[in-house]
């Protein structure tokens, strides 16, 4: 029986700007994702500066393995040790 192919996160094509409010595409950020405000960590893939509600960004979440949406006011610029450990535990728990 052949092995199951592993699903890899493929970033979407870059349509928006490469930099916005001091953040760059490909930068790793800790944030509270939108709309459920759960702690997340991932690499920024795209910016959405012209969003109806507020400027936001898409990122590939390391915890859930999905593309998520976050707002700039929910980014954690200086994460505490507790936040970092919480993210590491969540990543370890969700990996096979």
Question: How many whole angstroms does the radius of gyration measure?
Answer: 14 Å
Helix-strand makeup class: mainly beta
Mean pLDDT: 88
Low-confidence stretches: none
**Cα distance spanning the termini:** 20 Å
Q: What's the CATH architecture name?
A: Roll
The overall strand count is 6
Task: List its traits.
39% strand, two-stranded antiparallel sheet, 1 helix, four-stranded antiparallel β-barrel
What is the structure about, briefly put?
The chain has 96 residues and is mainly beta. The chain is built from one helix and six strands; from the N terminus they run ββββββα.
Explain what you see.
- With 96 residues, this protein is mainly β.
- It has a single domain (19-94), classed as Roll (SH3 type barrels), CATH 2.30.30.
- It is 15% helix and 39% strand.
- The chain has a four-stranded antiparallel beta barrel with strand order 3-4-5-6. Strands 1-2 form a two-stranded antiparallel sheet.
- The radius of gyration is 14 Å and the shape is globular.
- The two termini are 20 Å apart.
Secondary-structure map:
Blueprint: E1 19-20, E2 23-24, E3 28-34, E4 39-48, E5 56-61, E6 67-76, H1 81-94
Antiparallel strand pairs: 1-2, 3-4, 3-6, 4-5, 5-6
